[in-house]
Amino acid sequence: MIAATHQALTDGIQVGTFRADPSYRLNILNIALPPLRSARAT
User: Looking at the domain assignment, is residue 40 inside a domain?
Assistant: First the structure.
C-alpha cells in the first residue's frame, strides 16, 4: 500500500484528527520529497 498526504500525520495524531494505529502500520518507510513547485525547469 502506498499512502501520501500533504499534512503531517504526527500533528494529526496529537490533535486527534488522525488515529495512531493506522499511522503505526503506514510508518514503515518515509520518503520526503520536495514540492514540485520547488523544481526548476531547465
Answer: no
Cell matching residue 4 = 501520501
Q: Give first-to-last CA distance, the chain, whole Å.
A: 33
pLDDT tens by residue, 23-41: 667 667 777 778 887 766 6
- Torsion angle of the four alpha carbons 5, 11, 13, 19, in this order, in degrees rounded to the nearest 10: -10
Residues of the domain holding 3: 1-33
Residue pointed to by grid coordinates 494529526: 12
Does residue 38 form part of some domain? Answer: no
Cα separation, 13 vs 8, in Å, equals 9
14 φ, ψ (degrees, to nearest 5): -65, -40
